[in-house]
């Protein structure tokens, strides 16, 4: 047989653009695709259908997940505030020890809030869970002032409370990304 008499294979056409000849195929389903409809993913090239994968389940919250998160935040926040009122009493003095206690208290509150939400919400993650954790920490700081019976001037001049809140929110948020 000569080169002219070899049978040629039929050209492969793109499934979405039937007038475009292609040698590419989806790495998942094998559908012929052209460069216009090719989608690059971490797992390789895909057709638009295979590439449109939704968010991972750990980031999708159902209404029951929100209810569990709020039901956890309401008792955990005041409980953390109670512990904070016992261990880290509000004070108008700004010193090295009050700053150290604020850092430790904020870190502890952030870890506790994040872990409580992890357990009750089934290890869910994302911005919504981070907001619930932040609200839990803020609730703990407010409860700390109320349960400690701190005068209003302590609330205004006490820098350890806001510092605890900032550190606690940061820690809880980073653990729930």
SSE inventory with pairings:
Elements: E1 24-25, E2 32-33, E3 39-41, E4 44-46, H1 48-51, H2 63-87, H3 96-120, H4 127-148, H5 152-157, H6 160-175
Antiparallel strand pairs: 1-2, 3-4
Helix pairs in contact: 2-3, 2-4, 3-4, 3-6, 4-6
What does the model show?
- This protein is mainly alpha-helical and 177 residues long.
- A two-stranded antiparallel sheet has the order 1-2.
- Strand 1 and strand 2 form a beta hairpin.
- The longest helix has 25 residues.
- The radius of gyration is 28 Å and the shape is elongated.
- 31% of the residues are buried.
- The mean pLDDT is 88.
Task: Note the main attributes of this structure.
177 residues; mainly alpha; 2 domains; two-stranded antiparallel ribbon; two-stranded antiparallel sheet; 6 helices; 4 strands; 6% strand; elongated
Query: How do the SSEs run, as a string of H and E?
Result: EEEEHHHHHH
- Whole-number average pLDDT? 88
- Using only C-alpha atoms, the radius of gyration works out to 28 Å
Could you tell me how far the N terminus lies from the C terminus, measured between alpha carbons in angstroms?
65 Å
Strand content: 5-15%
Extended strand count: 4
The biggest beta sheet reads: 2 strands, antiparallel
| Strands side by side in the biggest sheet | 1-2
Ranges where pLDDT stays below 50 over 5 or more residues in a row are none
Structural class: mainly alpha
Number of individual domains: 2
What percentage of residues falls in helices of 4 or more residues?
55-70%
Q: Name the shape in a single word.
A: elongated
The number of helical elements comes to: 6
